[in-house]
Amino acid sequence: MTLLAITGTTGFVGSAVLDAALAAGHRVRALARREQAARDGVEWVRGDLADQAALTALCAGSDAVIHLAGMTNTPDPADFEEANVTGTARVVEAMRAAGVRRLVFVSSLAAREPKLSAYGASKARAETVVEASGLDWTIIRPPGVYGPRDIDYLDMFRTAKWGFVPLPPGGASSIIHADDLADLLVALTANAAPTRKQIYEPDDGREGGWSHKELAQAIGHALGRRSVFAPHLPRGVLDAAAAADRLVRGDRAKLTPDRVGYMCHPNWVSRFDRKVPAAVWQPRISGEEGLAATARWYAREGWL
């Protein structure tokens, strides 16, 4: 039985990874900021990425580490450096101290274009830390991750319910269901030899990804609408919307100037030459199927 050390298990993707690891028969040692309910097969370690002692306890005796924790959104772009770069360096240090070799690091497609956003730049620098670590690493750059409990795509579902989905300037992106991503991350912990020192960009299997309008229409169909009005908004409108979101929601604003930076990039499609080997993993959940299931979950939970 394998012991996996995992950071970020209390978040949206992390909770799916925790479920997938347990379903695969692994034991899990999980880092958490706050006290968590007891769960069979899970040992909770209280702490965060700034707590080197907690990270040392997390890694001690583990067979592999999935480093998922990090910051995806903040009103202060300077926060990305501490959470995503320095935090990753601390995980690497704890692994070395514990003699753990296998690291699966969750980055982002945003790392491909570090000049577009502070978030993407921080993920690119974190990748550099991992690559220089001397560990048996694999880096995963997920595209847009969606599924039950996700809040990032929730606003698109909410507006699509009324037949309207505002979009950034024209472009295309890939998506992946959280359960598929979780299965991949867990599978990689046991596939060190063929995947070591590789960077992969997984997706839902849709070649060429989804144009923004295609995704908006697919979300509308998932909600039972024949079509939705999905206009492309110019950069200036999105900048103004980000300023308004900060005024209304303060530090809880979801649309920040940093996010606008990478939202306006035309190509966030996972690249074919970064595809995960089929012998290691293949997506199970198509976009249409996953979006429909997500819409049903949102409706059932009253999120719409």
Structure description:
With 304 residues, the chain is of the alpha/beta class. It has a domain at 3-146 and 175-204 and 270-285: NAD(P)-binding Rossmann-like Domain (Rossmann fold, 3-Layer(aba) Sandwich), CATH 3.40.50.720. The protein has eleven helices and twelve strands. The strands form three sheets. The chain has a seven-stranded parallel sheet with strand order 3-2-1-4-5-6-10, with helices on both faces. A three-stranded mixed sheet has the order 11-8-12. α1 (12-23) links the parallel β1 and β2. The longest helix has 20 residues, at 79-98. It is globular. It starts with a strand and ends with a helix. The model has no long low-confidence stretch (mean pLDDT 93).
- Indicate the CATH class of the domain at 3-146 and 175-204 and 270-285: Alpha Beta
Share in helix:
40-55%
Secondary-structure class = alpha/beta
Count of distinct strands: 12
The CATH superfamily label of the domain at 3-146 and 175-204 and 270-285 reads: NAD(P)-binding Rossmann-like Domain
| Global shape | globular
Question: What's the alpha carbon Rg, rounded to whole Å?
Answer: 19 Å
Order of helices and strands: EHEEHEHEHEEHEEHHEEHHHEH
Please give the CATH architecture of the domain at 3-146 and 175-204 and 270-285. Answer: 3-Layer(aba) Sandwich
**Termini separation:** 41 Å
Largest sheet: 7 strands, parallel
Proportion of strand residues: 5-15%
Calculate the mean pLDDT score and round it: 93
Poorly predicted runs: none
Give, in spatial order, the strands making up the sheet with the most strands.
3-2-1-4-5-6-10
CATH level 3 topology of the domain at 3-146 and 175-204 and 270-285: Rossmann fold
Number of helices: 11
